[in-house]
Design goal:
The protein is 36% helix and 19% strand. It has 237 residues and is an alpha/beta fold.
């Protein structure tokens, strides 16, 4: 199938999952994960209806920006971001989804201040408490939001999570429901730089459960662009 056909299929599946959950399909945004896909593939996805592109790697982001690959879509950074690469991302993307530590939050706010901008961000929660994954503990989020106004050059837009790999349908529902509750709790906070409207959770194997639990954005790569060829990844970097 072509990228355009894949996009149509994924959007239809998202809409079907939304309706099955009693939700308006318009409430859920597809973020196409563009890792290891070139500028031409990204342009094809945008022409087919993708409105948000999610990039995992700073080097790829920089290269595709130079090729104007994302024209017509928002750009989100969804991968692990090192503090020494913050200046290459802040001000270049609409949303940084993967803010996984207070140290990174400080660096982003500082760079945004130097640029004279407000950078939109999501806080990433390690909802499955997996040792190999980064992210805040669920219990850290509300105390952090209570002091979020000490980072005046960021705007908190919501939360993101990558739960454990789902072996069976429903395996991650408990994690998604916990994320939804934290999302509801931070929406109740009254802070000038908190404008929560994004709950980014759900990927190819579990997005239906994420949508049922309240996700507003699902991040899908392979189902849009096809399987990634990791054997040649080093040649593309």
């Amino acid at each position: 199938m072509s990228i355009a056909e894949n996009v149509g299929k994924v959007l239809a599946e998202i809409a079907e999952s939304a309706r099955a959950a009693g939700r308006d399909p318009g409430e859920i945004t597809l973020c196409a994960a563009t890792k290891m896909n070139d500028a031409q593939a990204v342009r094809e996805a945008i022409r087919a209806g993708v409105r948000v592109c999610g990039e995992n790697r700073v080097q790829e982001l920089t290269a595709k920006l130079a090729e104007n690959a994302y024209e017509g879509a928002e750009i989100h950074f969804i991968g692990h971001l090192q503090t020494n690469k913050v200046k290459q991302v802040v001000g270049k993307v609409n949303l940084i989804q993967s803010v996984d530590s207070e140290h990174l939050l400080t660096a982003i706010s500082g760079e945004a201040r130097r640029q004279g901008i407000i950078q939109d961000i999501l806080l990433e929660i390690n909802i499955g408490q997996e040792a190999a994954k980064s992210g805040f503990g669920a219990e850290e989020i509300l105390p952090l939001v209570d002091k979020i106004d000490s980072f005046p050059n960021i705007r908190l837009r919501g939360l993101m999570a990558i739960p454990p790999i789902a072996r069976n349908p429903g395996d991650n529902l408990k994690f998604f429901l916990k994320m939804r509750q934290i999302y509801v709790d931070i929406r109740a906070k009254k802070k000038d730089n908190v404008s929560v409207d994004c709950l980014s959770m759900g990927m190819s194997g579990d997005f239906a459960d994420a949508i049922a639990a309240g996700s507003t954005m699902v991040r899908i790569g392979t189902a849009v662009f096809g399987a990634r060829d990791y054997t040649t990844a080093h040649q593309k970097m």
